[in-house]
C-alpha cells in the first residue's frame, strides 16, 4: 500500500485540476451564451424603438412648457 501513494496523489491532483478546468469551461460558456442572448435582445429592442428620441421629447411639449415658463420669468 505504501508504494501506491504517488499514484493516489497524481490521480487526486490531476482529477481536481481537470474538474476545475471543466467547471471553468462550462461556466464561461454559459456566461457567453447569456451575454449573446442579452445583446441580441437589446439590439432587437433598439430596432423596435423610435430612431429619434429627441424628436419624441419635443413632440410631448416638454420644451414648449419650459420656454413658456422662462418667458413668464423674464417679463
Protein architecture, described:
This protein is an all-alpha fold and 75 residues long. The protein has a domain at 1-49. It is 85% helix and 0% strand. It contains 3 helices and no strands. The chain has helices at 5-48, 53-59, 62-74. It is rod-shaped and about 100 Å long. The chain starts with a helix and ends with a helix.
Features:
rod-shaped, 75 residues, 85% helix, single chain, 3 helices, mainly alpha
Q: Brief description of this entry?
A:
The protein has three helices and no strands.
Describe the largest sheet.
none
Runs with pLDDT <50, length 5+? none
Measured distance between first and last alpha carbons: 100 Å
Tell me the β content.
Answer: under 5%
Based on CA inertia axes, which overall geometry fits? Answer: rod-shaped
Structural class: mainly alpha
Q: Share of helix among residues?
A: over 70%
Radius of gyration: 31 Å
The count of DSSP E runs of length 2 or more, i.e. the number of strands, is: 0
Count of helical segments?
Answer: 3
Element layout with pairings:
Elements: H1 5-48, H2 53-59, H3 62-74
Amino acid at each position: 500500500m505504501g508504494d501506491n501513494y504517488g499514484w493516489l496523489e497524481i490521480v487526486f491532483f490531476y482529477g481536481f485540476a481537470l474538474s476545475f478546468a471543466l467547471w471553468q469551461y462550462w461556466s464561461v460558456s454559459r456566461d457567453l451564451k447569456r451575454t449573446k442572448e442579452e445583446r441580441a435582445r437589446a439590439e432587437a429592442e433598439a430596432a423596435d424603438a423610435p430612431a429619434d428620441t429627441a424628436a419624441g421629447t419635443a413632440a410631448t411639449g416638454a420644451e414648449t412648457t419650459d420656454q413658456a415658463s422662462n418667458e413668464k420669468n423674464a417679463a
